[in-house]
Amino acid sequence: MTTTAFLIPPVNLMGAGCLGDAAKAIHSCGFRKALVVTAPSLVRLGIVKKVCDLLAAHGVEAVVFDDLQPNPMAQNVTDGLSLLRDNACDFVISLGGGSPHDCAKGIALVAVNGRTIKDDEGLDPSGKPQLADDAPADLCLAAIYRLSGDISFPGWPAQFPDQFQSLPRSP
């Protein structure tokens, strides 16, 4: 039988005021510029501005990436990665539900591995987790859930179909 490791974020903040506490913790870890991956609806509702304002109050800049669709495509990951690199972001925040969380996971994965999301198709072929000892650079991924029922983030799998495919390829 093969043993498989399942990684869950080591720190979880919950409760009233936890966004402010999270911004303070992010700053204390030395992060300076976030790529916030989110849904356009959360921008319209003002939730993204609230998070960005809390980060700014703790000296952390934010660049917002909301150009993604439900069930993000490989191109969404590529576009988000370009924004991360062009703005020299040193960590990623996923804000919202499943689609932002999946897209943020893909962005962080390809940023660390220096490949494309298509190169990592299949069951855990990347070889390097986001915080690997031998990765070119560590890239922290923080998640802010929209609802208590959002469960996309803790697990590593996500699918990113190519825009020319009707269904994602199987591993």
Verbal overview:
The chain has helices spanning 18-28, 40-44, 47-57, 74-86, 98-113, and strands at residues 33-38, 61-65, 91-96, 140-145. By secondary structure, it is an alpha/beta fold. A 4-stranded parallel sheet has the order 2-1-3-4, sandwiched between helices. Helix 5 links the parallel strand 3 and strand 4 (140-145). Helix 1 packs across helix 3 and helix 4 (74-86) packs across helix 5 (98-113). The radius of gyration is 16 Å and the shape is globular. The protein starts with 17 loop residues before the first helix and ends in a 26-residue tail after the last strand. Residues 130-136, 152-157 and 163-171 have low confidence and may be disordered.
SSE arrangement:
Layout: H1 18-28, E1 33-38, H2 40-44, H3 47-57, E2 61-65, H4 74-86, E3 91-96, H5 98-113, E4 140-145
Parallel strand pairs: 1-2, 1-3, 3-4
Helix pairs in contact: 1-3, 4-5
Series of H and E elements: HEHHEHEHE
Radius of gyration from CA coordinates: 16 Å
Strand arrangement across the biggest beta sheet: 2-1-3-4
Determine the structural class based on helices, strands and strand pairing.
alpha/beta
Helix content: 25-40%
Number of DSSP helical runs: 5
For the termini, the CA-CA separation is 20 Å
Strand content: 5-15%
Uncertain regions spanning at least 5 consecutive residues: 130-136, 152-157, 163-171
Give the overall average pLDDT: 76
Count every beta strand, where a strand is a DSSP E run of 2 or more residues.
4
